[in-house]
């Protein structure tokens, strides 16, 4: 068996390939950005051929950088931006349309119609999702409606639909395998998370022929082998998972009630809730965490739209700082926020508030307000938003979070991490390997081929870089949260 696992991490803005060794160390990394298309307001597209071109190029680059051969790779894992929708011709392998990206809002009016017709509850019940343009179903339907001849071809079984994982597997196998995994399937709004099958009633509702759909596999299983034309030796593709679920696994949140937050552009919170799905009373998503060894684990998920992006806005939008990292010293230059709060509702508010009419606002400004207050208020706002989602998760699941595992670019900010621990009143654990998405799917692939023996073996590979313990006084935290919620209330419903 090869001495390494190759993880392909196909994200929203770049394709990456990372080679891991048995100790979970990174051996090599290659990355390429690709083009974002914005053909109209609210539309976001990718070129599927460019996704493949960049992903296959970085795969080769990651190997050649270290002089590795295909035979050195025990298995490949694939993790990906989720929900993004690709429809292609089975015969020619050509996409019918550019990929419609998860951020794309073109089907929002259709979702509103479905809501008005009273379908939201059925969808929620079967898929665990909130009826929204975010998920794949309405995007597939849009392609069938808008691309001439697409519907007839789909009904004749000539077209294939897939999320990005399926598309990559199709390409890696030379068009031999059309397959996805349960985590990606659970984001399509067509998959019944209880029966683990494509749902006929939903397919009928969205008017999508079943013949287009991929087979659904476990997240840790040999689903295919690469074809001989891509790499000299055939390599098993043995792990597949959506990127947030892969990160949850990479953070070894394998115990019920364990949670991770990724602090990137937005903040993605996912809590593993065990072998039964938990229905949220707080508008969080119920989704599949993974299926390993036949066992399905479920998760609750909530996203904050503007996380690190608020810091980006300070840097690029209003040029308050030159580098994101300067916000840490600015925040630390004050002993508290001196009454200044920022609600970063720059594109509405996500979970648990769900208000698309909310807008960003600073509160509590005085003649004494400086750059430091605004920087501090911005970092604090990231922490408050994560707090609100995590508390909603705790309420839904009945689990009390004792530790939160964290990753993503903004976790480099030690002020933010300490403040987050204080506000949550729990330990934050930042791992040494912050490539949690890639290592998560590497673990899934490695377990399937016996590269790693069991979960216990990989659990020993997770190491903390730094733990942040809560140390703030409870009255101060309560006061901060009281003012934060007052600020949120005032920012809500602004444009309506
Ligand atoms: N030291 C820092 N302090 C605060 N925010 C930071 C810091 N470094 C990076 N960020 C923020 O983290 C985000 C980038 O994180 P990353 O995980 O690469 O995001 P994504 O995968 O969404 O592109 C940016 O929005 C940036 O503003
Ligand atoms: O590619 P990312 O990291 O922006 O993640 C995208 C998510 O999977 C969307 O649901």
TrEMBL record:
GO MF annotation terms: ATP binding; glycerol kinase activity
Domain Carbohydrate kinase FGGY N-terminal positions: 4-250
Bilayer-spanning residue ranges: none
Record: residues binding glycerol: 82-83, 134, 243-244
Cellular component terms (Gene Ontology): cytosol
GO annotation, biological process: glycerol catabolic process; glycerol-3-phosphate metabolic process
InterPro entries: ATPase_NBD (IPR043129), Carb_kinase_FGGY (IPR000577), Carb_kinase_FGGY_CS (IPR018483), FGGY_C (IPR018485), FGGY_N (IPR018484), Glycerol_kin (IPR005999)
HAMAP family attached to this UniProt entry: Glycerol_kin
Function field: Key enzyme in the regulation of glycerol uptake and metabolism. Catalyzes the phosphorylation of glycerol to yield sn-glycerol 3-phosphate.
Protein name per its UniProtKB record: Glycerol kinase
């Amino acid at each position: 068996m090869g001495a390494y696992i190759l993880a392909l991490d196909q994200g929203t803005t770049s394709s990456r390939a990372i080679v891991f060794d048995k100790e979970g160390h990174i051996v090599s990394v290659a990355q390429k950005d690709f083009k974002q298309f914005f053909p109209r307001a609210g539309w976001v597209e990718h070129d599927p051929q460019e996704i493949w071109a960049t992903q296959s190029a970085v795969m080769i680059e990651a190997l050649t950088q270290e002089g590795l051969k295909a035979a050195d790779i025990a298995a490949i894992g694939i993790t990906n931006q989720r929900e993004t929708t690709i429809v292609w011709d089975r015969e020619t392998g050509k996409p019918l349309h550019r990929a419609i990206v998860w951020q794309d809002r073109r089907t929002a009016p259709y979702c509103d119609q479905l809501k008005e017709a009273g379908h939201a509850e059925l969808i929620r019940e079967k898929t665990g999702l909130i009826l929204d343009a975010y998920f794949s179903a309405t995007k597939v339907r849009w392609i069938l409606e808008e691309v001439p001849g697409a519907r007839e071809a789909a009904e004749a079984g000539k077209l294939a639909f897939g999320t990005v994982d399926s598309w990559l597997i199709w390409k890696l196998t030379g068009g031999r395998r059309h397959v996805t995994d349960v985590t990606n399937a659970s984001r399509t709004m067509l998959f019944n998370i209880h029966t683990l099958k494509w749902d006929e009633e939903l397919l009928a509702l969205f008017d999508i022929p079943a013949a287009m759909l991929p087979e659904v596999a476990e997240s840790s299983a040999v689903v295919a082998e690469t074809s001989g034309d891509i790499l000299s030796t055939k390599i098993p593709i043995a792990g597949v998972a959506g990127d947030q679920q892969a990160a949850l696994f990479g953070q070894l949140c394998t115990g019920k009630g364990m949670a991770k937050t990724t602090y990137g552009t937005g903040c993605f919170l996912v809590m593993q809730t065990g072998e039964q799905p938990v229905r949220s009373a707080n508008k969080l998503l119920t989704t599949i965490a993974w299926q390993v060894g036949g066992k399905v684990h479920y998760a609750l998920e909530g996203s904050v739209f503007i996380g690190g992006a608020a810091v980006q806005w300070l840097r690029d939008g209003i040029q308050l700082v030159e580098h994101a990292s300067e916000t840490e010293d600015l925040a630390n230059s004050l002993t508290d926020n001196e009454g200044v709060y920022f609600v970063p509702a720059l594109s509405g508010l996500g979970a648990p508030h769900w208000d698309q009419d909310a807008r960003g606002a600073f509160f509590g400004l005085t003649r004494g307000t400086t750059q430091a207050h605004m920087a501090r208020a911005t970092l604090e706002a990231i922490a408050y938003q994560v707090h609100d989602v995590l508390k909603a998760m705790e309420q839904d699941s009945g689990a009390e979070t004792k530790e939160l595992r964290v990753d993503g670019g903004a976790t480099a900010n030690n002020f933010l991490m300490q403040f987050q621990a204080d506000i949550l009143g729990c330990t934050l654990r930042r791992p040494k390997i912050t490539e949690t998405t890639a290592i998560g799917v590497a673990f899934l692939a490695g377990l399937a081929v016996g590269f790693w023996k069991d979960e216990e073996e990989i659990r020993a590979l997770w190491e903390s870089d730094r733990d942040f313990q809560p140390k703030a006084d409870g009255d101060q935290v309560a006061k901060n949260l009281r003012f934060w919620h007052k600020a949120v209330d005032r920012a809500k419903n602004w444009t309506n």
